[in-house]
Amino acid sequence: xxxxxxxxxxxxxxxxxxxxxxxxxxxxxxxxxxxxxxxxxxxxxxxxxxxxxxxxxxxxxxxxxxxxxxxxxxxxxxxxxxxxxxxxxxxxxxxxxxxxxxxxxxxxxxxxxxxxxxxxxxxxxxxxxxxxxxxxxxxxxxxxxxxxxxxxxxxxxxxxxxxxxxxxxxxxxxxxxxxxxxxxxxxxxxxxxxxxxxxxxxxxxxxxxxxxxxxxxxxxxxxxx
Amino acid sequence: xxxxxxxxxxxxxxxxxxxxxxxxxxxxxxxxxxxxxxxxxxxxxxxxxxxxxxxxxxxxxxxxxxxxxxxxxxxxxxxxxxxxxxxxxxxxxxxxxxxxxxxxxxxxxxxxxxxxxxxxxxxxxxxxxxxxxxxxxxxxxxxxxxxxxxxxxxxxxxxxxxxxxxxxxxxxxxxxxxxxxxxxxxxxxxxxxxxxxxxxxxxxxxxxxxxxxxxxxxxxxxxxxxxxxxxxxxxxxxxxxxxxxxxxxxxxxxxxxxxxxxxxxxxxxxxxxxxxxxxxxxxxxxxxxxxxxxxxxxxxxxxxxxxxxxxxxxxxxxxxxxxxxxxxxxxxxxxxxxxxxxxxxxxxxxxxxxxxxxxxxxxxxxxxxxxxxxxxxxxxxxxxxxxxxxxxxxxxxxxxxxxxxxxxxxxxxxxxxxxxxxxxxxxxxxxxxxxxxxxxxxxxxxxxxxxxxxxxxxxxxxxxxxxxxxxxxxxxxxxxxxxxxxxxxxxxxxxxxxxxxxxxxxxxxxxxxxxxxxxxxxxxxxxxxxxxxxxxxxxxxxxxxxxxxxxxxxxxxxxxxxxxxxxxxxxxxxxxxxxxxxxxxxxxxxxxxxxxxxxxxxxxxxxxxxxxxxxxxxxxxxxxxxxxxxxxxxxxxxxxxxxxxxxxxxxxxxxxxxxxxxxxxxxxxxxxxxxxxxxxxxxxxxxxxxxxxxxxxxxxxxxxxxxxxxxxxxxxxxxxxxxxxxxxxxxxxxxxxxxxxxxxxxxxxxxxxxxxxxxxxxxxxxxxxxxxxxxxxxxxxxxxxxxxxxxxxxxxxxxxxxxxxxxxxxxxxxxxxxxxxxxxxxxxxxxxxxxxxxxxxxxxxxxxxxxxxxxxxxxxxxxxxxxxxxxxxxxxxxxxxxxxxxxxxxxxxxxxxxxxxxxxxxxxxxxxxxxxxxxxxxxxxxxxxxxxxxxxxxxxxxxxxxxxxxxxxxxxxxxxxxxxxxxxxxxxxxxxxxxxxxxxxxxxxxxxxxxxxxxxxxxxxxxxxxxxxxxxxxxxxxxxxxxxxxxxxxxxxxxxxxxxxxxxxxxxxxxxxxxxxxxxxxxxxxxxxxxxxxxxxxxxxxxxxxxxxxxx
Lengths: 225, 1096
Hints:
The complex is a heterodimer of chains A (225) and B (1096).
Chain A: H1 4-15, H2 22-36, E1 41-51, E2 59-68, E3 72-77, E4 83-88, E5 91-96, E6 101-106, H3 113-120, H4 130-136, E7 137-145, E8 148-155, H5 158-163, E9 166-172, E10 178-184, E11 190-200, E12 218-220
Chain B: H1 2-21, E1 23-25, H2 37-48, E2 54-60, H3 64-80, E3 85-89, H4 93-96, H5 101-110, H6 114-123, H7 129-142, H8 146-153, H9 164-170, E4 187-194, H10 201-218, E5 226-231, H11 232-266, H12 269-294, E6 296-298, H13 304-325, H14 331-354, H15 362-390, H16 415-436, H17 456-467, E7 475-481, H18 484-503, E8 507-511, H19 520-534, H20 537-546, H21 555-569, H22 579-585, E9 589-592, E10 595-604, H23 612-620, E11 623-626, H24 628-662, H25 665-689, H26 700-721, H27 726-751, H28 757-788, H29 810-819, H30 825-842, H31 844-854, H32 862-887, E12 898-900, H33 902-909, E13 915-919, H34 927-934, E14 940-943, H35 949-961, E15 965-968, H36 975-984, E16 988-992, E17 1001-1006, E18 1009-1014, H37 1016-1024, E19 1027-1036, E20 1039-1044, H38 1058-1078, H39 1091-1095
Parallel strand pairs in B: 1-6, 12-20, 13-16, 13-19, 14-15, 14-16
Antiparallel strand pairs in B: 2-4, 2-5, 3-4, 7-10, 7-11, 8-10, 9-10, 17-18, 19-20
Helix pairs in contact in B: 1-12, 2-24, 3-10, 5-21, 6-19, 7-8, 10-11, 11-12, 11-13, 11-27, 12-13, 12-15, 13-14, 13-15, 13-27, 14-15, 14-24, 14-26, 16-25, 16-28, 19-21, 24-25, 24-26, 25-26, 25-28, 26-27, 26-28, 27-28, 29-35, 30-32, 31-32, 37-38
């Protein structure tokens, strides 16, 4: 066993994907942002796996996502949808259809920065401005494995970092399509979304990103004490 | 000489004791009236809720991350300094120690209404646990909120989902950053708790210096982070430092200015140095006596030093100037000449400062008392100790010492000079009126006057408020009660009041600890359920495992259940007390063994200015509203309310002083004109310079009145002394007044540099007011005096020693009678003795008369006569006091009076004769009537009319109260007919035999000298055949002794001849001779009684 240990370690080191150098990283990022310039809308199915330290087994949920530049998105978790997050401009609703409950988040300039930083994590995979991206995230590493780039990011916002010290994006090496996102929480829990059946620039009805609370819904505003 | 040394040593004792007791109080609130509710509330808040050991360190950085990094670094470094720092908190403590939230959450549930807690207990019943856990898993699977993910993961049973009312009061676990950082994160604060008590200002100063050093070292270098410090330790260190600075600046500055002015005026080193030495001794002694009386001297009162220096120098300067102007006079003669001025000046100054005790501000009251003590000391020290070392050769009487010579008539005033002065007066009045036409200087109703100027600690505090979202200083609401339930009830009562205040825009919001305050009844009712739930930990753990939860997820649940187990085991109210809970609760709750306190914060609307109605409503609910913003207005209202108590006595005192000093209305009006003009100029200067009145500098009014009137007294008395010679008066007193005024201005002016805003404004206003008084007294008043009062009147009111004192008047008698109802007899004696000593010292003419009267009794031994004279004044003070008590109706039976010779009286009356009790002006003869009445023998008193008819009536009324009949006989001989008839009817009549009116005066011999005695007893004896009994009542051994001497028998037929009546009169006086000699100090004659001295 003692003889095997260094062998195993060496093997592990050989197998680990090598991190790119800074100039290589920059080239990949430049290509990624160039590809993002062509993205206007995007839809995909996803399988979300939540590996929480508090649970003995991961939780797996299926869902669907629709995205439109610059900030509109619609995340639906569960089938039928148990949670729907809809952003339209500076308004975001997190709707719980079965509970007839919704949370309203206002993300305008008046919103405290920490809330905006936190909400920005939900659309990390769709940056449209490199400067804004680099203002929000520190790039920890960029590796290539199994035909996908793995980009490890750290939020620069201290508030966001208190909850999520790291995020990882999976990008297809050929067209930089979003393959996966993984949020790592401060206690080591993770939330990974693997995307399938992605469609680039499908026609999307703008009403998909709008939601008006029905009369029987209870709407709260968590950002207001 | 030996006696003097003994007195000097005795004077050291209170000084040493005073220094031992002396300490300094830097608490600003101790300056304020304790009875004002806003002050009470503020003190209560500071005592129970302001952590005296807590410092707030502020950090400002260019960006959020740098600020956070700096805060973390500083907090860590400070936490490592364990001898100094108990804790340094830079972020909400529940983020650093989330495990400690379990106790708080458990407590909050325990505090809920029983129905709510029962609902929780039902939800967590064993059969329902799977459903609860499934719902939690579902939420974990579908929530998009990272906070929910974190919370639900470690709270599978939903115990952190508290009722909404509690969440809004306590805040969620994710909240609290706004307590520590601004919205943009570039400004952060750290709460630093000291390890030690920091009881005194030295500890605060040293500790703060150490913390500042550690903070500076912990800041990330080159990142542009700036640190600030505020909180009690910073305030105490700053205020104590300012006090030291103020003392050094004001005392040093004033002393320097005094030295400079004195040098410029006189160019003499020795008097200047001696003056400074005496000033230093007076200052030290005053501080020591202040320590003896008060113990703690507060920060405002330290201003007394500069004021005292400026005032004390006046007495020395006036003496010195007069000594230079009158080189032919001895120092004692100078002292006698100046003493009345000094006495009245000191009297008005002391009274002006003592009146501050009625102003309602304890801080200023102490200042006033200290200055009063100092001025009294200064007057005594400067009068008796300043000149002798400077003029040792002038201590013995000089040839010209008979008094200040009557001056020759002064030169007439130059018309141009007169016109210039009146023109200047007119221009001043018109100019000031023009400036004030648009309005008087405004009043600052805020509390700015209490705050230090240019205070870093205050600036830092304002930065904290501004950056952490407070637009105005919050108001504090404090409630207290004997138990938790009482406070909880008050919290319920104030809630609707505050909600209404928000609705009507008085407040924008409020923070009340109603959600956090223990509810004893709820806790008691919830104990059973809490105990049951605590017993279900194992079942809950098993259910959690079964439903996919790891053991790590149950830490919080376990903590909550353990807390419930502990709480259920006790019978008293449960308070959470782990470090996190303590950190939260100490901000809004305080506990003593028998008293509980709760504090809330009210946020005023930007436009709201008055909170009086809100304060009243809250007070009826048992809560005190307070706050620095409220303080200024309410204290100012209290000061204004008390201002009449300052000004009225001050005005009365000034008028009284002026009357006693001048006895002439024109001179009194002239002094008042000086005050009025300088007041007008003061208001104009304030208006021009933009100064405002505030609650501290309002006190300048009585100070300016009291000190300013001195200058006009000095000047006008000097003008009298010098017969209206303006040049001589200016040369003697004018220069002195300029110097005195200059030093007083220096004293107050250096206060204008004080670190305390209010004291600085007080100093400036006083300096300007006194400048006006001084300048007008020196340059304008003399011309007014010449024009309207002039030297045509006698230089000083002729002191007529052959007549009774001006003080022997009805108003003084009535005042004395009234005071006997307020002042206890012993205290009255003490005061009377003091005043008698002063009067004896000052009234030289009267003292000479008494001494001349006593010389024959002591065989012309002047030294013995002088000693007896002093004792006579003392005895008279005691006699007069007792007479006032007697005439006001006080019981006198216990004054230890005993009779001897009563059997003589009984024997004399037996045949049904009238009795004539004759007595000299010896002892307290009036008390005889009481003794006679007590023995069932009413008395008729024969008396002359008093100098004041109202006094005659008053005394007659007093005797009537005692059952004594008074017959006033003037120079009318027919009055005797009534007396004769009464004697024939068997009455007892009392009569004074010495100092008779001229019609009844006959020459006799007393002590070998010719003496005038009354022949009236002999005449009455001839007419009525009455018995003549010599009698007297003297004070001996603390009580009174009454004696009836053997009857003076006579042959009624024989005394039909005048010669025989003269002999009878002589016999009466001879009977009294040994008695008078034995009780010489009680033979009260204040006018000459020996014919040869009368003619002199």
